[in-house]
Amino acid sequence: MLHLDSSESAVGGEQESASYNWCFKFVCYHPLFCFNQLGDCEDALLRLAHVHSAEHWKQLLEQIYYVEFAGQCRKRVIIKVMGE
Q1: Cβ of 47: how many Cβ atoms within 10 Å?
Q2: Is residue 45 included in any domain, yes or no?
Q3: What is the pTM of this model?
């Protein structure tokens, strides 16, 4: 089981690609994290501040899937999207 969650990461100064987020009301990044059933972070994706919380979820899961299961037999993957 994998859990995707986004967060805000405020920055000080002028870090490359950081931008203003109107929801959080400060300059930040909006990273997307993927945790396993034990709460360990499997991977993360640093994103611009102005993206939707779910943007790039498929890219992150594909990264994890191809690294974890490369060379192994195909596994059935079920994706359940839960609302806020």
Answers
A1: 20
A2: yes
A3: 0.69
